[in-house]
Specification:
Radius of gyration: 18 Å
CATH topology: Rossmann fold
Largest sheet: 7 strands, parallel
Distance between the termini: 34 Å
Strand order of the largest sheet: 3-2-1-4-5-6-7
């Protein structure tokens, strides 16, 4: 009972009045992370196109890498204050055969899913250094570890590369006490998932999951919050599978 109360108190303190950068906040896992951070009393800097009343936003299409780099560079110097963490939830997917993927579409998926994570991490490094427990969390996918029947080659490749980016950044940033980790979610109950598979495919997929159901966005958010908190201060360079036992 004592440990439970202490843990609850410390966990809340890890987020109250702390500042976090968040992408992909308009739907799915990112939207759940946004709600949870707000409940915990965090301040949030949004990066994306959708405005939320009362929230600070760096308004930009994550697919426009040059503009994103410029805006993040300007904002990091402008705010000057510490950033306690960065959560990259943004991601786009289109389940098509490689023969149907144009170079432009390939580049767009990589820009949103991967390059934006690199750009934001690079530009806000100095702000993260000012925090006592700076943490970066990328949302990859179990598709980044294996083939996928509900994702395109560009999506799977970008998610695998995102894990690689987190590994390398954990080495480069780790010496400055900035931790970098990934979560690799399995299929989660989101609008993007519903669009990417038929009901028959969904039922077949559920049969292959040991726990016997799809993940909920709250369960993915829980993993992200853990990696942002002081309870994971020695976890760096890891990719945590939140997949119901699929891998």
């Amino acid at each position: 009972m004592f440990f439970h109360s202490l843990a609850k108190k410390n966990f809340s303190q890890d987020f109250k009045n702390k500042t976090f950068i968040l992408t992909g906040y308009s739907s799915g896992i990112g939207q759940q992370v946004y709600k949870d951070l707000k409940k915990l009393g965090s301040k949030i800097i949004l990066i994306g196109r959708k405005k939320i009343v009362g929230e600070k936003i760096i308004e930009c299409d994550l697919g426009d890498s040059a503009k994103l780099d410029l805006l993040c560079n300007q904002e990091s110097k402008k705010i000057k204050k510490k950033i306690d963490g960065f959560v990259h939830c943004a991601g786009i997917n289109n389940c098509v055969k490689i023969s149907k993927i144009s170079v432009d579409e390939w580049n767009k998926v990589f820009s949103v899913n991967l390059t934006s994570a690199f750009i934001i991490s690079k530009n806000f490094k100095l702000n993260l250094l000012k925090s006592q427990n700076p943490s970066i969390v990328f949302v990859s996918s179990i598709a980044g570890h294996r083939k996928s029947i509900v994702s395109g080659t560009h999506y799977v490749s970008s998610k695998a590369a995102l894990i690689g980016l987190s590994k390398q950044l954990s080495h480069e940033f780790g010496r400055f006490k900035i931790r970098v980790n990934c979560i690799s979610p399995s299929q989660t109950e989101t609008k993007m998932l519903k669009k990417s598979m038929t009901k028959k495919q969904a039922n077949k997929l559920i049969q292959s999951i040991p726990i016997g159901r799809l993940a909920k966005t709250q369960e993915q958010s829980n993993g992200i919050l853990f990696l942002l908190s002081s309870f994971s201060k020695y976890i760096n360079g890891s990719s945590i599978n939140i997949d119901g036992g699929q891998i």
